[in-house]
């Protein structure tokens, strides 16, 4: 794809490679699915990807044969926005794409302005809390004017539409998925057991950001549940993976409740090392309010039972409670009761092999590729259609 060649599509994201989190993981999966769809078409698609906050030195695993990346990170955020505006304008003018995908609601007003100037349709991708409330007029109008809206779960769709008076039929669901080849069961790693002092323990685990704005993740709720859990399982420990300024408060809370020796703060763990940490766990516990919750899929693919909130997008990965426990997300007593049930291991939802099979049957990478292909074709924004071959997950 040279400087004057046509690009079929344009993607615009805040960041993908310089940060790690659920949205970034999801976007990588979507771009991988896009490459898979492209390879199976009679004429391969091409796309330009604009990354407002990513640096060109970041690790990018894509081959760039289908996707051309533009890194726009600057010390001055306003300068970065200006570079994005100019770059997007030039791309719309020179490449005349058939469609633009706006990867965050904060970028939607700019996308609307430029796309309408060039008569290019656009779709806005949404995820969770950023669109669950009444949006400012500019962002809401950008959604109204969009050709389509994609989101990751039924709950996010319903909250988005209710809060912003949007037609639910305009919103398509493109779910999160998990790579079952990467996230797979295995024995507990002895090295990590020794590192965290978990020998002989029943291990509960959470992967979450620990910033004050992420209180909804429920780490403090799980800490409050530990005294009750310990009366039934005296060897229980809680492994918390993640970093953030709220950690000192959480550490103090554990000390105040007399469970300081039971809570292990592991700090930041790279995505590449996460699967080994999931294998440490006897259960994944996160009574949260998620747009979806990729971590639940990762845990279940590793054969680990899961606990989530009962009023959020985690209903999709947990398949409305068929695959895990759903409890009120700020209720320590409910969390304690469910954790005790999980650690007893008597429920079908604790069967690791069954759990993995049920999870991957609905949320694997082949299904994401198939769904993306369907959405591209239904919106008539794919240059050539072709059936997508899917494989049954193992």
Keywords:
elongated; Rossmann fold; 13 helices; 2 domains; alpha/beta
Walkthrough of the structure:
With 394 residues, this protein is of the alpha/beta class. The chain folds into 2 domains: 9-177 and 364-378, Glycogen Phosphorylase B (Rossmann fold), CATH 3.40.50.2000; 190-362, Glycogen Phosphorylase B (Rossmann fold), CATH 3.40.50. 39% of the residues lie in helices and 15% in strands. The chain contains 13 helices and 13 strands. The chain has helices spanning 22-39, 77-95, 108-118, 137-145, 154-164, 190-196, 219-232, 247-256, 271-278, 294-301, 332-344, 352-362, 365-378; strands spanning 9-13, 47-51, 67-71, 99-102, 122-125, 148-151, 171-173, 202-207, 236-241, 263-267, 283-286, 306-309, 325-327. The strands form 2 sheets. A 7-stranded parallel sheet has the order 3-2-1-4-5-6-7. Strands 10-9-8-11-12-13 form a 6-stranded parallel sheet, with helices on both faces. α7 (219-232) links the parallel β8 and β9. The longest helix is centred in the N-terminal third of the chain and has 19 residues, at 77-95. The protein starts with 8 loop residues before the first strand and ends in a 16-residue tail after the last helix. Mean pLDDT is 93; it is low at 382-392.
Instruction: Write down the domain tally.
Output: 2
The N- and C-terminal alpha carbons lie at a distance of 37 Å
The whole-number mean of residue pLDDT values reads: 93
- Please count the helical segments: 13
Give me the strand/helix succession: EHEEHEHEHEHEHEHEHEHEHEEHHH
CATH classification class of the largest domain: Alpha Beta
Helix content estimate: 25-40%
Could you give me the name of the CATH homologous superfamily of the largest domain? Glycogen Phosphorylase B
Poorly predicted spans: 382-392
Strand order of the largest sheet: 3-2-1-4-5-6-7
Structural class, from helix and strand content?
A: alpha/beta
CATH topology (level 3) name of the largest domain: Rossmann fold
The CATH architecture of the largest domain comes to 3-Layer(aba) Sandwich
The fraction of residues in strands falls at: 5-15%
- Overall morphology: elongated
The rounded Rg comes to 22 Å
């Amino acid at each position: 794809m040279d400087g004057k060649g046509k690009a079929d599509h344009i993607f615009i994201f805040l960041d993908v490679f310089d940060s790690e989190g659920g949205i970034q993981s999801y976007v990588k999966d979507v771009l991988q699915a896009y490459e898979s769809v492209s390879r199976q078409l009679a004429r391969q698609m091409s796309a330009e990807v604009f990354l407002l906050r990513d640096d060109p030195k970041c690790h990018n695993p894509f081959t760039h044969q289908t996707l051309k990346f533009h890194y726009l990170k600057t010390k001055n955020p306003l300068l970065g926005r200006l570079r994005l505006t100019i770059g997007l304008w030039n791309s719309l003018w020179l490449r005349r794409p058939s469609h633009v995908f706006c990867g965050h609601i904060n970028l939607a007003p700019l996308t609307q302005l430029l796309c309408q100037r060039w008569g290019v349709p656009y779709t806005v991708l949404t995820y969770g809390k950023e669109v669950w409330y009444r949006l400012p007029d500019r962002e809401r109008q950008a959604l109204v004017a969009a050709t389509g809206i994609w989101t990751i779960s039924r709950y996010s769709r319903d909250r988005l539409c209710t809060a912003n008076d949007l037609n639910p039929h305009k919103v398509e669901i493109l779910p999160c998925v998990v790579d079952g080849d990467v996230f797979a069961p295995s024995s507990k790693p002895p090295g990590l057991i020794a590192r965290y002092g978990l020998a002989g323990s029943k291990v509960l685990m959470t992967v979450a950001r620990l910033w004050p704005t992420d209180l909804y993740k429920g780490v403090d709720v799980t800490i409050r549940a530990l005294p009750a859990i310990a009366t039934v399982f005296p060897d229980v420990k809680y492994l918390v993976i993640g970093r953030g300024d709220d950690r000192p408060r959480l550490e103090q809370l554990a000390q105040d409740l007399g469970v300081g020796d039971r809570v292990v703060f592991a700090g930041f763990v790279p995505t590449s090392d996460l699967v080994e940490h999931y294998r440490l766990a006897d259960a994944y516990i996160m009574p949260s309010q998620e747009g979806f919750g990729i971590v639940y899929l990762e845990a279940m693919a590793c054969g680990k039972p899961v606990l989530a909130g009962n009023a959020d997008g985690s209903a999709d990965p947990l398949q409305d409670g068929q695959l895990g426990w759903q409890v009120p997300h700020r209720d320590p007593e409910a969390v304690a009761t469910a954790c005790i049930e999980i650690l007893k291991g008597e429920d079908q939802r604790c069967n690791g092999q069954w759990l993995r099979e049920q999870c991957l049957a609905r949320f694997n990478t082949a299904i994401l590729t198939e769904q993306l292909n369907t959405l591209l074709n239904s919106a008539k924004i794919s240059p050539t259609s072709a059936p997508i071959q899917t494989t049954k997950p193992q």
